[in-house]
Specification:
Structural class: alpha/beta
CATH class of the largest domain: Alpha Beta
Number of domains: 2
Strand content: 5-15%
Protein name: ABC transporter substrate-binding protein
Distance between the termini: 13 Å
Organism: Streptomyces gougerotii
Shape: globular
Number of helices: 20
InterPro entries: Bact_solute-bd_prot1 (IPR050490), SBP (IPR006059), TAT_signal (IPR006311)
Radius of gyration: 22 Å
Keywords: Signal
């Protein structure tokens, strides 16, 4: 799996153009200057700084870190979804931050392979932090050559939330666990003017739900192959696409789902305009108390002959990690202090209790104020698990797959057209 950036281009010394573009890319959050070469300043590039779940906790922890280490200052650069591109631009100019807090997805998959970030396995062991990390998280963050790309930190459960009050209002007596039950529930909900399953069919939330449904008839090994190669022609993948089309054309998804976004999805569920959503734990943490009080979490309903014995969820341990850059290696003592602080059990617990985050680290803390997050953490044998495809999709196919997702959620689009759109995403990316 290769980055769209070449090894030579990404790691070459920054040209005048790269140096000129690095700073505008960082405008609006912060910029790098000569003081950042000071060993007493640790520059952290993060998505936690605005409205992202966990941002208030992160800011509070940085303040505490400053109090404990008066000679060491954390300087945060804040970006949203554009963080990977901004980091790559700054790396080309050799002006990259010291630590990066971002998920393992799309372009970041190749960073360590290309030398844009360090293999941190030795640091994890030298600093005695390996036992703090869940084994599954270490496995997901380790590449095929045995390199540990980053220090794992945030994780995510991705169950299905059901508003039981809305289901009861429509005459649906229990949470659907089969496709036929889901179709029947959708008909009853629509008769009451309630949207059944809300989904961001025009963004990553729809992409993930589509991938989950396609995996209905795939084993994990088969799913890895499908999403690594883009070959959806096997029987299991074709049956999964057929199942998705059956559900879509039966009215299971909200109207015009192909144009909806993750924000629309969460708004519809949180305001009780829709009865069901497939949502990761950061979205579950935002469900208002009045809605959460009559919501249950479970798995996606299955079709007959499925490869899974129980309704499925997704889990991932790659939501946010601490990556160390080549510049960070020059300040490794400061990096060690910062990561030891963030890995403390009490620091980890604060993200759980204050922000409802799932963590990739060992902890006994439960999200008491975030009941749906806690309920998702407790899901066990009553659900099965499918792959989150992010680790296997080539970076060049990531965005084209979202375009293909919108095509898939358009009612009336044939299964053959959906398959063609998915496979084209791998050829045209």
């Amino acid at each position: 799996m290769r980055s769209p950036l070449s090894r030579r281009g990404f790691l070459a010394a920054g040209s005048g153009l790269a140096a000129a573009t690095a700073f505008p890319a960082l405008s609006g959050c912060a910029s790098l200057d000569s003081s950042d070469a000071d060993p007493g300043t640790l520059v952290v590039h993060t998505q936690l700084g605005t409205t992202a779940p966990g941002s208030p906790t992160y800011r509070a922890l940085v303040k505490e870190f400053h109090a404990e280490h008066p000679g060491l200052r954390i300087r945060n650069l804040v970006n949203g979804d554009d963080l990977p591109q901004v980091y790559e631009t700054s790396r080309l100019a050799r002006k990259e931050p010291d630590v990066v807090m971002v998920n393992l997805y799309d372009k970041t998959l190749a960073w360590t392979e290309l030398g844009a970030t360090l293999d941190v396995k030795g640091y994890l062991d030298d600093w005695g932090l390996r036992e703090r990390v869940l084994p599954a998280a270490l496995e997901e963050w380790t590449d095929e050559e045995g390199r540990l790309r980053a220090f794992p930190y945030f994780a995510a459960n991705w169950p299905v939330a059901f508003n039981t009050t809305l289901l009861e209002r429509a005459g649906v007596g229990s949470v659907p666990t089969t496709g036929d039950q889901l179709i029947g529930a959708a008909r009853r909900l629509r008769a009451k003017g309630i949207a059944p399953v809300t989904v961001g069919g025009n963004d990553w939330t729809g992409q993930k739900l589509l991938a989950q449904i396609i995996q209905t008839f795939l084993t994990p090994e088969e799913a890895r192959k499908v999403y690594a190669t883009g070959d959806f022609g096997g029987r299991g993948a074709r049956e999964g696409i057929d199942y998705f089309v059956q559900l879509r054309d039966a009215g299971v998804f909200a109207d015009k789902a192909q144009g909806l976004t993750s924000d629309t999805m969460t708004t519809q569920y949180n305001t009780e305009a829709a009865a069901i959503q497939s949502a990761m734990s950061s979205a579950l943490a935002k469900v208002p108390e009045r809605t959460a009080a009559h919501s249950e979490v479970g798995g996606w309903p299955l079709a007959p002959g499925a490869a899974h014995a129980r309704p499925t969820i997704m889990r991932s341990y790659t939501l946010i990690g601490f990556w160390i850059s080549p510049n960070g290696a020059k300040k490794i003592s400061a990096v060690e202090k910062f990561l030891r602080f963030m890995y403390r059990p009490e620091s980890v617990s604060r993200f759980i209790t204050e922000s409802g985050r799932d963590m990739a680290l060992e902890t006994d803390t439960v999200s008491k104020d975030f009941p749906l997050v806690a309920a998702a953490q407790r899901l066990g044998d009553e659900v099965g698990q499918v792959l989150l495809p992010d680790l296997y999709v080539p970076p060049t196919a990531t965005q084209p797959l979202i375009t293909a997702t919108s095509t898939a959620f358009t009612r009336g689009t044939s299964a053959a057209t959906v398959r063609s759109a998915l496979e084209s995403a791998y050829r045209t990316g």
